[in-house]
Specification:
38% of the residues lie in helices and 22% in strands. The protein is α/β, with parallel strands linked by helices. It folds into 2 domains: 266 residues, Aldehyde Dehydrogenase, Chain A, domain 1 (3-Layer(aba) Sandwich); 185 residues, Aldehyde Dehydrogenase, Chain A, domain 2 (3-Layer(aba) Sandwich), CATH 3.40.309.10. The strands form 7 sheets. A 7-stranded mixed β-sheet has the order 15-18-19-14-13-21-22, with helices on both faces. α12 links the parallel β18 and β19. α2 packs antiparallel against α4, α2 packs antiparallel against α5 and α3 packs across α4. The N and C termini lie far apart (78 Å).
Length: 480
């Protein structure tokens, strides 16, 4: 661990459009090197209350902003991120431990997210209704428009510190809602830099606050009824507990998973193996749609493994700022200890480590595990690490049942060219999305994204998030 003293930047929190100093600050460290990458001001309950009051006041302005104005602001934000793209990539790499080449992809996705939100701001859908379908409605007209719900509380995780923040803020701006955001304590710097760009783009003063907070001080984000929507991305246990505390407000939850891939006997094995490496080990598996369980038809298992295992062994674990690194340390050493415990548990009951398996602090070697029963935590819980399990099947329906044998249901990937099997999977799998000839980790930012069962409630993706952040209102007009 690098403990040498160096000057590091100090990042003020962002209250109602203004950077503010604080009494309480803390250090953000690079998960791989341990080096301090920034000191961050932490807000207190009084500052959160001020942010809520500002959001309530500012909503009276944002709700009336015309769509062309909201779209213009969003386009300006997108351009602002583009102008600082490498700065953002290096920030993500340092605070999240994400390899720089993957951090650059996240930045590009965030640029797209705001640009697409600008488009969606101008086409929030309404409709007219033929009220004269019933005799009492003759001569009357029905018009339905969507209106912003009100101030929004948003809480984001560490693993995509820019783009998952973008998935809260961009649709909120497009809908005309004010927002108070709590970024992850481990990775707040990207969000604070983004807040500067949004303010400079002309978003109304008071309509955005970004506040690093202690968990015990953040209760009003969940419980205060002045917020009309709570949008949370994070762990299932925390998310579902928040929903119980949220009262009458709307809640959207994007939670965890143990995503699966099925590789059928007609699959392109070169494609399936290459994509499974990406899906299972990018960002050290720290994505809720990372490949965790792989089911391979027994007729092609050996051929698949001949491609998959060497590619996993070739992955390079190292400093996130090294262009050659494919993955780096988990966000905390405690996560590494958890993974080691789960692997030991699996070994003790006969699971076989095919490659990897070594854990040093937060650094976990890319690991493939065979002969692991579905009841083991490396299968049935979300491991959030560079570990995948692999097993064979004979009948396709057997594989579908194995995927569904889970408390989670975000996305699943299937490699097959049989259209009948594609439709069977689509109708059978208990997930939010079925990805054909790719891994469940595949996502583009304007598609509907979310899960079922313990994986969440509601949908993200620009158009679909805007629907969550607006509500339909009917005008029934009698012109007489």
């Amino acid at each position: 661990m690098n403990t040498a003293h160096i000057d590091v930047p100090r990042h003020l929190f962002f209250l109602a459009g203004v950077r503010q100093e604080c009494q309480d600050s803390y250090e953000v460290r690079n998960p791989y090197t341990g080096a301090v990458v920034g000191k961050v001001c932490r807000a207190d309950p009084a500052k959160l209350e001020a942010a809520i009051q500002a959001a309530v006041r500012a909503f009276e302005t944002t709700r009336k902003l015309p769509s062309h104005r909201r779209a213009s602001i969003l386009r300006t934000v997108s351009a602002g991120i583009q102008s600082r793209d490498e700065e953002f990539a290096r920030t993500i790499a340092q605070e999240a431990g994400k390899p720089i080449k993957q951090a650059r992809v996240e930045v590009q996705r965030s640029i797209f997210t705001f640009a697409q939100a600008a488009e969606e701001a101008t086409r929030i859908e309404g409709e007219t209704i033929h009220l004269d379908a019933f005799s009492a409605g003759e001569g009357r007209y029905g018009i339905v428009r969507r209106f912003p719900v009100g101030p929004i509380a948003a809480i984001t995780p560490f693993n995509f510190p820019l783009n998952l923040v973008a998935h809260k803020l961009a649709p909120a701006l497009a809908a005309g809602c004010s927002v108070v955001l709590k970024p992850a304590s481990q990775t707040p710097i990207s969000a604070l830099k983004l807040a500067e760009i949004i303010a400079d783009a002309g978003w109304p003063a008071g309509a955005l606050s970004v506040l690093p907070l202690r968990s015990e001080d953040a209760a009003p984000l969940i419980e205060d009824q002045r917020f009309k929507l709570l949008t949370f991305t994070g762990s299932p246990a925390v998310g579902w507990a928040m929903k119980q505390r949220a009262g009458h407000k709307r809640v959207t939850l994007e939670l965890g998973g143990n995503a699966s891939v099925i590789v059928h006997n007609d699959a392109d094995l070169d494609l399936a193996a290459a994509r499974a490496v990406v899906g299972g080990f990018s960002y050290a598996g720290q994505s809720c749609i990372s490949v965790q369980r792989i089911f391979v038809h027994d007729a092609v298992y050996i051929e698949f493994m001949d491609r998959f295992a060497p590619a996993v062994k070739a992955l390079r674990l190292g400093d996130p700022l090294d262009e050659a690194s494919d993955l780096s340390a988990l966000v905390t050493p405690g996560d590494g200890a958890r993974v080691a415990e789960w692997l030991d548990e699996a070994r003790a009951v006969g699971a076989e480590i095919l490659t990897g398996g070594t854990v040093q602090g937060g650094a976990v070697e890319p690991t493939i595990v065979a002969k692991a029963g579905p009841e083991l935590r490396i299968n049935c819980a979300e491991i959030f690490a560079p570990v995948v399990t692999i097993q064979t099947y004979t009948e396709f329906d057997e594989a579908l049942a194995a995927v569904n044998n889970s408390d989670f249901g975000l996305q699943a990937g299937i490699f097959t060219n049989d259209l009948q099997l594609v439709w069977r999977a689509y109708e059978t799998l208990e997930v939010g999305g079925v990805i054909i000839n790719d891994v469940p980790t595949w996502r583009v930012d304007h598609m509907p994204y979310g899960g079922v069962k313990q994986s969440g409630f509601g949908r993200e993706g620009l158009k679909y998030a805007i629907e969550e952040m607006t509500e339909p209102r009917l005008l029934a007009l009698n012109p007489r």
